[in-house]
Amino acid sequence: MTLPSYPDPTGAPDPSLPGATPFEPGAPPQPGAPPQPGAPPQPGAPPQPGPAPLGYPPPMGYPGQPAWGPPGPQGYPAYVYVPTRPTNGMAIAAMVVSIASLLVCYGLPGVVGAMLGHTARRQIKERGEDGDGMALAGIIVGWIGFGISMIAIIFFCVLIFGSWSSYDESGDF
Questions:
Q1: What's the domain count of the chain?
Q2: Distance separating alpha carbons of residues 112 and 120, to the nearest angstrom
Q3: Which of 6, 80, 94, 163 has its CA at a distance of 20 to 30 angstroms from the CA of residue 131?
Q4: Boundaries of each DUF4190 domain copy (predicted)?
Q5: Which are the contacts of 22, defined by CB distance < 8 A and separation ≥ 6?
């Protein structure tokens, strides 16, 4: 049984292979042999690529688009701060009140959420703020919740008052 031969971790060629020469530190390289790592390039040889830079690879952009903006001072990529518009607080309140009215109070306070939503939409148009979708959600959910609660109240009133009309003084139904 023959053991497989593994390459020498120092990079020296295996002397048992044909055409291999033993590695001697400081010995001149053989003609046609690849240069040893860290060795100065031979005169007249083409320049060898350097080691790969450490860190992340360069960012990829869309084809035909630069990956970064124009370079800023000292060659750093330009960073452009884009200010965000504030969200209208009344729009958030409208949505929260409308949803909470459905979950907690059967939709009756949904009219408050709907009114907050209408006021928030007017403020958003005047001030140029964000939150129009939340205000609209507050309006829709608030009016739907209020409508459902009104239908339920009318149903229970008819049920209660309808049973009184069939009540007899003698106690029989």
A1: 1
A2: 12
A3: 80
A4: 90-151
A5: 12, 13, 15
User: pTM for the complete prediction?
Assistant: 0.50
What CA–CA distance (Å, rounded) separates 95 from 127? Answer: 19
**Domain annotation covers residue 81:** no
Domain that holds residue 102: 89-147
The answer to whether position 100 is within a domain reads: yes
